[in-house]
Protein 1
Amino acid sequence: MNSTSIKVSRRLKWQYPVIAVVAAGAAGFGLMHASAAPAAAKKKPGATALIKKNPPPALFSDADVAALAKQRQAQKSTADALFAQWKKAHGSERNDRAFAAWAEKQVPAPPAKAARTAELHQVQQLAKTRTAAGKKAATWLELYGKKDIWKLYLHDQHELISQSQGDVEKARLKAALKLAKTITDQVAARDKQPAPYVLDPSLRPDKHLTARQKGPYSYPSRHAARAGAAVTLLSDWAPHRAADYQAMAAQIVYSRIYMAGHVSSDISAGTLVGDLVGDYLLNAAAGTGS
């Protein structure tokens, strides 16, 4: 890793004083609430509190993630062209169930066996280069790259907008992350492509796989889908921060290959799903004028 590897974590750390105030307030409320109603369940910590408690380590270098960053961005034009077909037929209608069924059909079949085997070999070669620092970065990105980092970025945006608009965007991001997961789960169940560490258990001995285990299935990547959806929405709401969001997405998807959770085609398919979801929700919002 070099100096560029900490750019993203530096972008996050300036937010910590604000996060500390929010977390302290939430903790105080939690104590008061607990004393008033001991039987009530403890509220789960929010994304800001979680990441403040466990801030990002030095992440991967720009050079490490460059190829996947380009691969992610290449999916955007494909997604936009495909979404134009949905928009032509449905306008700004929001029908999540119908859209999910349509989006599933837009995801191409996974690569043929020979091509996917070649992708597995790439993951195996990358695994040989793992370092302690790389594993630490990948572990953090896998944990917080699902949803929390995107919620934190949205919290940052909300410091400068009205409460009502903030509530709308929060609901929309939540819907995007959920819809991206729904579609990827549907495609994974359809195509049944085992994760790299299932095909080669030596890549992740910590997973303790059982004999003849087939799942989890990795095509398409949930992390990539959620990242694609979040980047599309957040970049529309704060265009001047788009490069930061793209940089974090590249870090997240690289970490998934680094730790043998996915191969390259899983990332492409997941990103396509996420970009479609982002386009869909922005289009629906434009139809409501919100």
Note: The radius of gyration is 20 Å.
Protein 2
Amino acid sequence: MPEGDTVWNTARVLHRALAGARLTGCDFRVPQLATTDLTGWTISESASRGKHLLLRLAAPDEARWTLHSHLRMDGAWRAYAPGERWSGRPAHLIRVVLRTPGAVAVGYHLHELALVPTAEEDTLVGHLGPDLLGPDWDPAEAVHRLAAHPEQTIGEALLDQRNLAGVGNLYKCEVLFLRGVSPWTPVGAVPDLPGTVALAQRLLAANRGRWTQSTTGSLHRGQTSYVYSRRAQPCRRCGTAIRKEELGERVTYWCPVCQPEQPGTPPPA
């Protein structure tokens, strides 16, 4: 699932494959960039910002530009050797192809593709909160942003990228289980908000550099999560059946015993 660590890993793969190379060809398969030709441009770096991926480029006139993409739930970038078969996804999902002498980068089902001057990146990502895996990570600012809406459920607040950038549904569910907090708890009633934020950062950081996301410490199939995607299976702590309900626009998984509702908290539907 493309959460902050997945996008971080993707950015590193693209950086290793493309950074410093001059583009020998490109193919944009989205209307807004269909006539764009970046041939001759140099890729300076590949970076992530929360769930956003930023390919920074230098044009022949030395102007700096950024190719922005968002993976959402189903997007992906793959890097191939020249002549290698593109096996990542069906061909009709390809949105962009970037060619260099040593690699071919293919973007599948990408969202929000845009080419902007690098100096204007904030128009696309400036609304984001502190990046859990970024050099600007500021836990105090993340806590401040979360606490600014005390009536919002903590489950929804953690997914709001304006508070902290990088947490997706998997980490939301796992962090709240490990903290013993019901997803329906208002932010203002969370016992230790700084501890919750710190745990989220540690879990994402632990999965940098690998594609199997684990919060349990195990990389074995079926053992990588405590509650996420484990509806009706026994809680690893108490044996109670894990529950699954909708919270906002996303589903959530939790243990009703290990994550008791706070007094006055509306129960899940």
Note: The radius of gyration is 20 Å.
Protein 3
Amino acid sequence: MTIVPPTPGEPRRPDGPRDPGDAWVVADDGTRYWGRFGAAGLLAVDARRGILLQHRVAWSHHGDTWGLPGGARHAGESACDAALRESAEEAGVPAGAVAPRLISVLDVGVWTYSTLVADVVQPFEPVISDPESRELAWVPIDLVDTYPLHPGFASSWPMLRGLLDVRPTLVVDAANVVGSVPDGWWRDRVGATERLFDRLETVTHDGLPAPLFGLPGETWFPEVLVVAEGAARGVADRDGLQVVRAGASGDDAIVAETERLRAAGRPVLVVTADRELRARVHAVGAEVAGVRSVLGAD
């Protein structure tokens, strides 16, 4: 492959000096891909209006087609951050308006394109701020196929559409996880559970590998449900985490929550090292993982 910078007169966005990532990657067969460090785009899902699409101007790469707001990643920039930055720059997507759910990656060897699927949590109207855009529109999901789509998006849309209703949940056996760390948790179970919450906030921000859930894609951002029992029930709620305070057996509460979620069609990953509990939740259709595979080494 070769790296080719944009031509001097080629429009850029936003105004100002170009980033080193703003360049063409040219494969040996001559195929051109935009983004020296790969590219990323946002598939914003609004429960009422559909998904946000960008109508590209005729002179742009694959012009006069509809695709996702997105563009070249910066050096060292995560796919999630790149998709959010590009969509803010191209379509005026406000910070905090969407909640990441899934990252799907197209890898052609010399270049990658990462699609961030995210749910709209604060409705907004998109704003054209890119010379490559003719129009921005919310398109009902059932009508997306009727638009002349960008070839890359057209090839990925069937798979992405099939994942729009998938909402995995991470269920955490707090007592077991806390007990795996010899940090004096027995003297302060509430404090130890709060430290666990700190670690789980990293999961909500960075996501988890798709294979842990048995799902396609690269990374999923699951809802996180923590079951606390005994003295740990006194822990305070934390934004971004659901806390279930078990009235009696924590294991029974975990199994009951898993059964409820599976009955609703939700993929579930239970984090515990308890062998009996692992067998019980596996029997009702959940995936199971140890502490290190989800939270890393202590």
Note: The mean pLDDT is 91.
Protein 4
Amino acid sequence: MDPMERLLAERACERLILDFVHRLDLGEPSSVAELFTEDGVWQWPEGDRLIKGRDALRTYFGSRPAGRLSRRLMSNVLVTVVSSGAAQAISYFTTYRVDGYEGGVIPAGPPVQVGHYEDTFRRAGGAWLLASRTLHLPFGGATPRANSPLA
């Protein structure tokens, strides 16, 4: 690959990483399935979760509880292009999340998760897609219920 092709591939994969968390936090969570290949995989080995295929991914991410408010911060995104059709990445994340959100401003608490993702990407039909996403979670806790909105 020439340097410009590599740069464009890296940027496309970075964009998928960010699009994933934006869809979970600000969009329609089930739509993250569209960012994966047809046989894409999301897994959390320590949580015994393995979701395979777009339909299963759509169902899994679409089953998030009503009233869940979350914001994820992504950092240290490092994409490595392996070939013209394959790439991998590692990125760190911090998740702030509450259940039972009904609007307004609520007191900020500590993050409920801090970890990293390991991703693999494949180029399919000219577009880069997630082939697999593996969650590694060294810091995690229960999702708290939202407190009363601040006045």
Note: The beta strands are 36-44, 49-52, 69-83, 86-98, 113-124, 127-140.
